[in-house]
Amino acid sequence: MQVSCAASFAAQVLFRMMLLLPLPLAAQDVTLISRDGKVEIAGTLLGFDGEFYRVDTAYGELTVDGSGVNCDGPGCPDLETYVAELRISGAAAAGEVLLPALIEGFALRSGFAVTREERPGQRVLYTLAAAESGRPAARVLIHSTNTDEGFADLLANEADIVMSLREIREAEAERAWEAGMGDMRAAGRVRVLALDALVPIVAPDNPVRAISVPDLAAVFSGEITSWSRLGGPDAPISVHLRDPVAGLAQAVEDRLLAPVGATLRADVVRHPSDRALTAAVIQDPFALALSTTSETGNAVPLGLSGACGFAIQATRRNAKTEDYPLTAPVFLYTPARRLPQIARAFLDYTRSDAAQLVIRRAGFIDQTPEEIPITDQGDRFANAIALAGTEVTISELRRMVAVLRPLRRLTLSFRFEPGSTELDAQSRSNIRRLAADLETGQFDGRRLVFIGFSDGKGRAESNARIARTRAEGVRRAVLSAAETMDETRVRLDVDAFGEAMPMACDDSTWGAKANRRVEVWVK
Description:
This protein is an alpha+beta fold. 33% of the residues lie in helices and 28% in strands. The protein has 15 helices and 24 strands. The protein has helices at 2-20, 92-110, 147-155, 170-178, 213-221, 247-257, 274-283, 316-321, 341-349, 353-361, 378-386, 394-404, 425-439, 460-481, 509-515; strands spanning 29-34, 40-48, 52-57, 60-65, 69-72, 84-91, 112-119, 123-130, 136-145, 161-164, 190-202, 210-212, 238-242, 269-271, 287-292, 300-301, 303-306, 309-312, 327-333, 371-373, 408-415, 447-453, 491-498, 517-522. Helix 1 (2-20) crosses helix 3, helix 2 (92-110) packs across helix 10 and helix 13 (425-439) packs across helix 14 (460-481). It is globular, with a radius of gyration of 25 Å.
């Protein structure tokens, strides 16, 4: 599977490069000459952001400050009429609704007039112009296809930003590195734009309303084929999924099947769009599909249940806290190259409070931290009491309640990659978000407590120590990221309760990950 995916990806990149061959490349030739005339850099102009030239030269790709050179040649831009260009490509789930909404919100907030123009090939061009003069300031081209196409566009120099519903593949990251785009997995290269969640959906007349994650994996791998195994009728399960190149389908294989070493069943019914997927499920009472919260339509989402935890729905809060085990971040990947100033301003805007409201209105889950009072978490505490083993004493449960009762839980949790001490992608994004809030004084005068929890494998004393170590590690990471924070204005403490509050069974990869977490509580 990995070989065929890599070959397919390489073929897409080669195809795009072949498409570029007929273009008059000579028209892009430039020579950058230093002000004193002593240094010349000749090559093909790859881009100009209004300040810096990006040129493909005999020495590789170079970025040159325009203030120190004169440009000569047919490819030189007109500095008087310069318009910033930004090309975004990738997952249609983000490109059709979310990105357009954010661009329009950014334009409104920045005082630009914005026009939209449909282009062939699932492309939309937005032009941002000065409201008074009408002079264009930026053009943003959105290419809404799928995640594979987005990364192929990036490597073919046809995109500046990739929209993705999954993390970058190893082969994609290696090719980007070889192309001089930097480490695409580094903090500055990837950001979580918004949140979504993978949701099992059924037709309204299907009697099943909940399914465990292991059973869901067994259905999609072909181990379970009848609804009777799930408490439904004695009928075959018809499994539906997006087409193989869609980020949603790839996320299903990455998040659901790969952790248990399973592969997708051969008879899965594929669909070219999220809407087609949902429509097919609604019409078939024996269908089961995995969609996202933003695309469930009139289908019925199933809760995720388990013997060691309560059934949990894919709500906004549960996705933010990652208590829901199949969260699906929407990623933006940017290479190590300088973007135009207006593009950088747009990326900054996507993290603002105003943008979070736009994200929610677009049907996705925002990342604005919320505070959850302890009175809204009765199921979690009831589950903790019901599943307390012999090693979790009543005195420890009482201590946990006493510590947490005066606090409120933030919807910022930190979870770890399977078999690793490394934080997962959403948690790494949460580090930067919490650090930014601390730097801007959002929590001045307050107390934050990083509280570690563990799975139930091993002795309770060891688990409590491990949980505390993780909590201390997250606290250090936040402090390291919050470089300008005034530490005298906020108190950051650490505590841990080990295996005292399980969210799921430890006998599955997902359950153990759900239980190994660091929560943030605030007073």
